[in-house]
What we know:
Elements: H1 5-9, H2 15-25, H3 29-35, E1 38-39, H4 42-49, H5 53-65, E2 69-74, E3 77-82, H6 84-93
Helix pairs in contact: 4-5
Amino acid sequence: MTIDDKLLKLKTFTSLQKLILGLIMDVTPIVLKFEGGYNNTCGDMAKEIGSSRNKVRREVDDLIERGYITCKVEYRSRVTNITQKLIALMNYSSS
Length: 95
């Protein structure tokens, strides 16, 4: 996984939130388009970044509440997308 330097420099997010956003943003745009977004559960994300499912879920819920990502949850899957608010924050920080 490669995390954008702009994201790493932001003080708005915790280390775990940066890892979660890094996972979401590391997926190629073509895959995101066909799948409708990042398509992994909190458990899957937790395994990839070496954390617990509950911690990841809390951080994802916080990112949703603050408007940086959107999620559509169905049965056991979660389709996650970044929002324009996050893109604008990253672009603003690099100026």
